[in-house]
């Protein structure tokens, strides 16, 4: 059974779940839904972002298709998440990028690559672009440091602003009247859940990544991807310190900290993106939607392009191909930065807020329970 309103279908499915209660130990969604019997639209969007899409509930559910109730909580919450991304995207006209998914990502990536490569071909003398440059400052002989930094900083700054506006909307919309701000312990609990991906453990045995057999592969690959991104961020940060504080210009030796961190980060991103793509291709499509699968594919392809172009630049930086590879890597990074607010990557922010709100709600329930116990005693 389905509905054109994603809230209605999610409400129907979770109302049945509240009456059943079999899946309460799988993740935080079902316990939280049980404590929200009204299942308002705000409640449902909170639950949708709280869901980590581990799929265990579908395979454990006695009311799942082909039962007449056709309960499919992962799919219902996936549809609702996509609806929420569209509604909260800022600026609103650019939400269309979320609708088109892979087509939008491909168009933006190709347009960015064409613009950057075209500008480099037009502005950089071919005797410089196609020459082998070595030693400190070799990259900046092709693209000056100032331009390289500006071209990356502008789209990143725009995306951070867009994501901040969207997340602020989500948080304010989900706040109930008189709700106190989260305490420090709530932040710690939410960060711990986010870092460990506790809700991707499926209650312990793992998630149904491929079929009805649980595994921990998707959680491990998510961790690998996160470590890869953090490694690349650390490499960029250390390189900035080298450049501005130590007066050392890239490219750096193979054994230097920026290169080691960047190499490990790029390899981790490559392994994770291909691994997650393999899981997505092999997975049962029943718990997901075509829109979510397309968004997954677009993000993984873009992340793989960033990682592989960076590794290619590292491998051939001392050759005549360095200039073109540098422009290509810069273009993929710019495209990635531009698409952050309108890609599947934004789910990390929404999920973090849901975990924070849930941690605060748990703390308040525990405190009320302790107060009731002391009063009774």
From TrEMBL:
InterPro entries: Citrate_utilization_prot_B, NarG-like_sf. The chain crosses the membrane at residues 106-132, 138-163, 225-245, 257-281, 293-314, 320-342. Keywords: Membrane, Transmembrane, Transmembrane helix. The keyword Metal-binding does not apply. It comes from the Bacteria. Signal peptide: none annotated. This is CitB domain protein. It comes from Marichromatium purpuratum 984.
């Amino acid at each position: 059974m389905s509905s054109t309103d994603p809230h209605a279908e999610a409400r129907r499915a979770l109302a049945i779940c509240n009456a059943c209660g079999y899946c309460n130990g799988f993740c935080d969604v079902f316990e939280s839904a049980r404590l929200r019997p009204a299942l308002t639209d705000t409640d449902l969007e909170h639950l949708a972002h709280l869901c980590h899409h581990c799929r265990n509930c579908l395979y454990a559910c006695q009311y799942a298709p082909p039962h007449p109730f056709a309960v499919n909580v992962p799919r219902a919450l996936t549809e609702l998440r996509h609806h929420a991304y569209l509604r909260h995207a800022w600026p609103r006209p650019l939400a269309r990028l979320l609708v088109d998914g892979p087509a939008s990502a491909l168009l933006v990536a190709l347009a960015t690559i064409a613009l950057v490569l075209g500008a480099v071909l037009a502005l950089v003398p071919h005797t410089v672009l196609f020459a082998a440059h070595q030693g400190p400052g070799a990259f900046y002989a092709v693209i000056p440091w100032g331009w390289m930094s500006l071209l990356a900083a502008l789209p990143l700054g725009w995306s951070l602003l867009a994501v901040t506006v969207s997340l602020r909307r989500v948080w304010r919309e989900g706040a109930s009247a008189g709700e106190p701000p989260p305490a420090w312990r709530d932040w710690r609990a939410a960060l711990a859940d986010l870092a460990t991906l506790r809700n991707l453990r499926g209650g312990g045995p793992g998630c149904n990544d491929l079929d009805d057999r649980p595994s921990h592969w998707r959680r491990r690959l998510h961790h690998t991807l996160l470590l890869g991104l953090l490694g690349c961020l650390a490499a960029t940060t250390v390189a900035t310190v080298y450049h501005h504080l130590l007066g050392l210009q890239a490219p750096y030796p193979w054994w230097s900290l920026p290169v080691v961190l960047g190499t490990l980060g790029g390899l981790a991103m490559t392994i994770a993106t291909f691994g997650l793509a393999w899981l997505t291709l092999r997975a049962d499509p029943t718990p997901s939607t075509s829109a979510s699968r397309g968004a997954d594919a677009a993000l993984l392809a873009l992340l793989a392009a960033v990682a592989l172009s960076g590794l290619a630049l590292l491998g051939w930086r001392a050759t005549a191909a360095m200039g073109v590879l540098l422009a290509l890597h810069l273009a993929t990074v710019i495209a990635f930065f531009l698409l952050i607010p309108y890609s599947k990557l934004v789910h990390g922010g929404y999920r973090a807020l849901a975990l924070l709100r849930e941690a605060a709600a748990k703390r308040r329930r525990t405190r009320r329970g302790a107060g009731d116990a002391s009063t009774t005693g």
